[in-house]
Every structure is written in C-alpha cells, then in structure tokens.
Amino acid sequence: MEHVQSDMKFVVAVDGSDASDRALDHAVAITAAVGGELTVVHAVDPDVYDTGGPDPEGDRSEAERRLIVEDVEDAENRGEEILEDATERAADAGLAVEAELLYGNPVETVPSFATGEGYDGIFVGHRGLSEREERVLGSVAKGLVERAGIPVTVVR
Amino acid sequence: MYETILVPTDGSAGAHAALDEAVSLAATYDATVYSLYVADTSAAQPETGYVDIVESFERIGEETTAEAVERAERADVEAVGAVRTGLPHRTILDYAEEIDADLIVMGTHGRTGLERYLLGSVTEKVVRTADAPVLTVRMADEDDAAGEDEVGDENEGAVTDTEEEEN
Questions:
Q1: B52 FRET partner, CA 20 to 30 A, in A11, A49, A123, B107?
Q2: What count of CB pairs under 8 Å joins A to B?
Q3: In a 3-state reduction of DSSP, which class is residue B114?
Q4: ipTM for the complex shown
C-alpha cells in the first residue's frame, strides 16, 4: 500500500445511525490511507422538525418518529452531539477530523458545502431501506447521488 | 481498504466517467480495476433471435472491457476485463461478490432524458442492494448541474482525465 501524503479532502455526512457509523469508519480508513483530510458534517433541517405532518398515525416507522424532535434548538444540540461522537470515533481510529454543523436539507447543503470548499468526495451511509420505506422517509444517500457534482460513496 | 475495485460498463459516457474515477482511485490505493460488461438478457426476447443478440452483446462486451483494461494499464493500473450474461444489477452484485470487491464505481446521469432512466435505474438498484460501498460519479458534461455546482470540481475531474490519457 502506498502511503502517499496527498491533499485529498473528503466529507462524511453523519446522523448517528449505524449506517452512518459504517460510512464514517470507511471514510476514516480511506482518508487515512492517503494522508488526506476528513470533515464530518451533520445537517440540521428545520423543515424536518417543525412538523409532525398530516401522515396517518401508526404508519410511521421507528426511524421517522425519532426524527421528530421538539424544535430546532434541540436538533442543533443533537447535531452537535452527533458530530462530537463522530469526531471521537474517528480519533479512536487514529484520525483527527474537522466537524461542521450545516443548516438545511442535507441533500442540498452537504453538496454545496463540499463543492464550495473544494472537497474531493462525499461519504454517506444508507440504511438499506426497502423501496416503500424509502418513499416515505426519503433517502439522503439517494438525494446526494442524484445531486452532488463530486463523487459520492454510499456505504451500507 | 481499496484493493479490488469493480467498475461495470455499458460503453456509455457515464460509464467512462466511472472508469476514469476507478482508475484514479486504483492508482492512489494500488488496487486492481475489474471492468465488467453485462450482456443484458432482459433486452433479448426468445422470439427476436435470442442467441444472436446475446452473442452480439458479448462481442460488444469483449471490446468495451478490453478498451477499459487498456485505459487502466496506460495509467499503470492493473486491470481485468469480464463479460457476463444476465440481468444487469443482479449480475453486477454476483460478480462483486465473486471478486470480493471493496468498492463498486458507477456513473449516474442528471435528471433528464431516457439515458438517465436506463443507467440510473441499474445504479440505483446497485446502490440500494450492494454490500460493498458504491461510489457514484456524475457525468462531467451535464448542463443541469452548472447552475448549482461550483465549476471548480468539474475542472479537477478534467485534469485527472488529461493525466491518464497522456500516460
């Protein structure tokens, strides 16, 4: 394995889920191998939090219920915690990472942050939802794949 | 770590962009690139001369993967070409398992046109179901991306292209 010191910069989008942890572990390994830089990002999306939505009750998955947090401030605090956990997890694996809290729909804010700051690629987890679940919850991974102008690596 | 990188190809521009990314990664991580062409059996119905169609797909596949291998080797990257017959996404997943791929690299299109539907749906299925991480590369010459994406990242991709082609 070549350990080339490079100026490769990657972003990994985290949300505290198992899939996100796997994406983080993968991103850490890939970044460390080229001596690059890694930034963990989490997007606080007010749109997700300010409504429980008119959806029929009982048709809501565990994951979706967890998403409905009291308000944006709680979401910010939770976002900070997610970033801290991710930073620690990366440090345990031997990589010092930067952390950045973003605001807005992750499908838009993550690519615009990454391309704006000159990153080379984005890593994101995918929970492996069924097509039906994905229609209800949406998929950040899928949105990033469709929108980002830089390579996106989806980790399950 | 990336040692075995699978890059399915259908000869399209999106697949070329994916190959360039795969070769660049393979050079960085000292990995081997596997170029796979799937002769799509769903496109050949028995009544339309199944055998002929599959055979001609296989011939196209041999040429396409040979070109990919050549392209990788010009960049000093080890490469293997393979042609398989079957349903694209299923065959890609089976082959990924067979070679124990660390990464699958695939192209995506933008939001317009029939091409997006065709390549996009295979990519989407692979992203949804592959055990290995899937790296998606968007075609560089898309105009619908110009408004929202920085021009800089497209240029970086172009630089990599040039380097590989000069080798």
A1: B107
A2: 78
A3: helix
A4: 0.80
